[in-house]
Design brief:
single chain; mainly alpha; 2 domains; 13 helices; about 0% strand; disordered N terminus
């Protein structure tokens, strides 16, 4: 049977090709222990660990993405442009991130990785079982590492299903891999949001007739809004630039509010969510 092209285009990305943050409901230590029991009961491993998915290429790609994000944000600081607290954190702590990238490359030889038991099913099928455990810990701890909570979660897991010595040794490196993975995804959001805010500023300048832009430029910009796709960060920036304008003289204000209402949101709610995201 032929699969429609629309269905093909909606193919779900493998977990280590996604851009979505590794984050889920925040659990207490006790809830992490309960989840570990459930996870251990549900997970099964294959008989052929050597046939699992490789991870080294993604690790190398994460390094390239983070270096590029660092360069973009460092240049913004050099140019005296405003950046978010999250972007500032990445620039300030990049030497530590770079050190973690080197340790991952040094501490995860291919032959060691190939021997780790691989999951037989689930969204991480083909990846090491210990990576599935680390994924759950990071998702439900909001990437906040705490030795005691990790120790108790691993102990609870082993009350149901014993890990090999190799897997226990791999917990630390696997946590590094996934924390860097999450940081890569966050850096893409930071850089992408920054680019969208710049686009929003350019649109706002035209709509407000600022600088060398004429009223004709403003009218053209408003017509072009119908085909513009902006992230939440971009829409918040555009709204903040326009919100003090009179809707009677600047119809772009109404356009923004109508578009948000159609999405079941409001400008104030969007601003609140964006400020909350930037403060993470």
């Amino acid at each position: 049977m032929n699969v429609p092209s629309e269905t093909k285009s909606r193919r779900v990305k493998p977990p280590l090709e996604s851009d979505e943050l590794i984050v889920d409901e925040l659990f207490s230590i006790e809830r992490l222990e309960q989840h570990a029991h459930t996870l251990a009961q549900a997970q099964t491993v294959t008989d052929t660990p050597n046939r699992g998915h490789a991870i080294q290429r993604r690790v190398a790609d994460n390094g390239r993405v983070l270096v590029n994000a660092y360069r973009v944000l460092a240049q913004a600081i050099k140019d005296e442009r405003a950046i978010t607290p999250a972007a500032e954190w990445l620039v300030d702590n990049f030497p530590i991130v770079d050190e973690q990238l080197r340790e991952i490359r040094d501490d995860l030889p291919n032959n060691y990785y190939r021997e780790l038991p691989k999951l037989a099913d689930g969204h991480l099928a083909g990846y090491p079982r210990v990576l599935g455990l680390a994924w759950a810990y990071i998702a439900h701890s909001d990437s906040r590492f705490d030795p005691e909570s990790l120790r108790r979660m691993v102990r609870a897991y082993q009350e149901e299903q014993a890990l090999t010595i190799g897997e226990l040794w791999a917990i630390a490196i696997t946590l590094r891999i996934l924390l860097v993975e999450n940081l890569r995804r966050m850096s893409q959001l930071i850089v992408g949001s920054r680019a969208d805010r710049q686009i929003a500023d350019d649109i706002a300048d035209k709509l407000l007739g600022l600088g060398s832009n004429s009223p004709a430029d403003a009218a053209a910009a408003l017509r072009g809004l119908e085909g513009t796709r902006l992230s939440t960060a971009g829409r918040v920036q555009l709204f903040q630039r326009l919100r003090d304008q009179d809707p009677a003289t600047n119809p772009a204000v109404n356009w923004v509010e109508q578009r948000l209402a159609a999405e079941g949101s409001s400008a104030d709610e969007l601003v609140r969510l964006e400020h909350q995201r930037r403060s993470r």
